[in-house]
Specification:
Blueprint (H helix, E strand, L loop, with lengths): L3 E4 L2 E3 L5 E7 L8 E8 L2 E8 L5 E3 L7 E6 L4 E6 L8 E8 L10 E5 L2
Length: 114
């Protein structure tokens, strides 16, 4: 069983930065590809993916602004978010790839507003 706990969200002005963390339990974390999603009212979007080998992929909406990374020694996946825009406002979640229903955590709220 894997448990995922997201943290690092908050209120930030447009143009600002945040770094989200996703801490995972389980010794086989390093074998999973991991995704960051975001949920705004009415829609869920896959934001970024990182494979077990470190290959990354991004949604067009965040490409060049967000960076996903992982530290297998700490069982943690990160999402560095720069040049934030109001449309980045959402609850951010991590999950394995493919996502497992029972792994969804509480998410972390990101609000971009002046």
């Amino acid at each position: 069983q894997v448990q995922l706990v997201e943290s690092g969200g908050g209120l930030v002005q447009p143009g600002g930065s945040l770094r989200l963390s996703c801490a995972a339990s389980g010794s086989i974390f390093r074998l999973y590809a991991m995704d960051w999603y975001r949920q705004a009212p009415g829609q869920r979007e896959l934001v970024a993916t990182i494979t077990s080998g470190g290959t990354t992929n991004y949604a067009d909406s965040v490409k060049g602004r967000f960076t996903i990374s992982r530290d297998n020694a700490k069982n943690t996946v990160y999402l560095q978010m720069n040049s934030l825009k109001p449309e980045d406002t959402a609850v951010y979640y991590c999950n394995t790839r493919p996502p497992v229903k029972g792994y969804w955590g509480q998410g972390t709220q990101v609000t971009v507003s002046s």
